[in-house]
Amino acid sequence: MNELSIQECYAARFSHCFGCGQSHPTGLHLRSYLVDNGQAAICHTTPPDEYTGGVPDNLYGGFIASLFDCHGTASAAGFYLVSKGKPLAPDTLERFITAHLEVDFLSPTPMGQELTLKATPIEVTDRKAILEMTLSVGERTTARAKMVAVKCKF
Ligand SMILES: CC(C)(COP(=O)(O)OP(=O)(O)OC[C@H]1O[C@@H](n2cnc3c(N)ncnc32)[C@H](O)[C@@H]1OP(=O)(O)O)[C@@H](O)C(=O)NCCC(=O)NCCSC(=O)Cc1ccccc1
């Protein structure tokens, strides 16, 4: 596993996101790491208690979508770098933005436990990345997602 997270390698101007911006004062500061020789990306997080909703003691669905949103765009940037044969290092990343995100909620996701997000690439081109993702608690997958992330022109 890389010691540096993908988000730590974003340029400063791209570090303000609520979910994953390392410069956001109150955000989640998600960190996604390339694993399996760059063929997957993993993020571990334990959501704050206030993000419960729907079924009591379970995680709010919109929050689950936002975890996929942030982990997915970071993973897209990482997979793009890998596709170019470049190593992860500060200020080396293109930034990807979510164009399409679909989520299947398979079973309620409990509060107070560490969650694991995993992304794998389906297709990476010069313009976009298509990814599959899962959200798991221990061995149980509670949600899965598919994303199209487009490389930012700005
Ligand atoms: C930039 C873009 C996503 C795409 O427009 P353009 O640049 O003109 O790109 P173009 O249309 O040329 O397509 C290129 C390729 O992509 C494909 N494709 C495109 N769309 C879809 C689709 N829906 N579904 C499926 N595929 C789609 C399209 O077919 C084409 O494929 P091809 O290469 O022919 O095979 C624009 O619609 C937009 O800004 N949307 C709002 C995004 C937003 O607000 N997201 C939520 C906030 S994200 C956040 O918070 C994090 C963040 C913050 C800051 C920074 C970074 C991250």
From TrEMBL:
Residues 58-140 form the Thioesterase domain. Pfam families: 4HBT. Coiled coil: none annotated. Gene3D superfamilies: Hotdog Thioesterase. InterPro entries: HotDog_dom_sf, Thioestr_dom. This is PaaI family thioesterase. It comes from Porphyromonas miyakawae.
